[in-house]
Specification:
single chain; mainly alpha; two-stranded parallel sheet; 6 helices; 2% strand; DUF4254 domain-containing protein; DUF4254
């Protein structure tokens, strides 16, 4: 089983486990061994899955404004956790390839392995939910057919993205691509970088 096959399997296990209770407040129960790659991938997708449903909830037109603000802050915190975990996954890859010497003409990829894995995790969620819609008995036949057509495209994207990720990892391992990681430097959650937050602090 190659890397993306493992990741896809783990992502789908996370999604299935979440939907046993389908509750954004339900705590993660990671079934994989400590320090294993599978444990990291499961945690990554769990964050994505919870956030997927938070994004659904906040779009309720009748939501209480106070609840919506609380949800927005929860989503912001989730985004930060997601970014931190993606960067942790890249650190895992950096360690894995630490003894690889890039060739003199090695290329630099515009996307790190972990951010490509992030896309694969989100794609697993799209496939899961589009499949539900394509088979939802309460929907019209036109709706189901439209969703099936979209699902077909998503599955092609899954194959293409999986191939691309595996090729990237092979290229890094062979020294054809130089792995470089740039931190996201997100500013909106940092009280020293977000003007709204640090100006508020100065007014006290």
């Amino acid at each position: 089983m190659n890397f993306t096959e493992t990741a896809w399997k783990v992502f789908n296990q996370s999604i299935e486990d979440y939907h046993v209770f389908d509750d954004v407040n339900n705590l993660i129960n990671n079934p994989f061994e400590k320090d294993s790659l599978e444990r990291i991938l499961y945690a990554k997708n769990w964050i994505d899955t919870v956030q997927w449903h938070l994004e659904d909830i906040i779009r309720d037109e009748n939501i209480n404004p106070v609840e919506a603000l609380q949800l927005k802050r929860t989503i912001d915190a989730s985004n930060q956790q997601r970014t931190d975990l993606v960067e942790f996954i890249d650190s895992w890859f950096l360690n894995k390839f630490k003894n690889i010497t890039p060739k003199p003409d090695a290329k630099i990829n515009t996307e790190t392995p972990a951010w490509a894995v992030d896309r694969l995790s989100i794609l697993a969620l799209k496939v899961y939910h589009m499949s539900l819609e394509a088979n939802r008995e309460s929907a019209s036949e036109e709706h189901r057919l439209n969703c099936q057509a979209k699902l077909d495209v998503l599955l092609i994207q899954k194959e293409d993205l999986s191939t691309s990720i595996n090729q990237l990892l092979t290229d890094i391992e062979n020294g054809d691509v130089k792995m470089k990681v740039y931190k996201q430097m997100k500013m909106y959650n940092d009280e020293s970088l977000n003007p709204i937050l640090y100006q508020k602090g100065q007014q006290k």
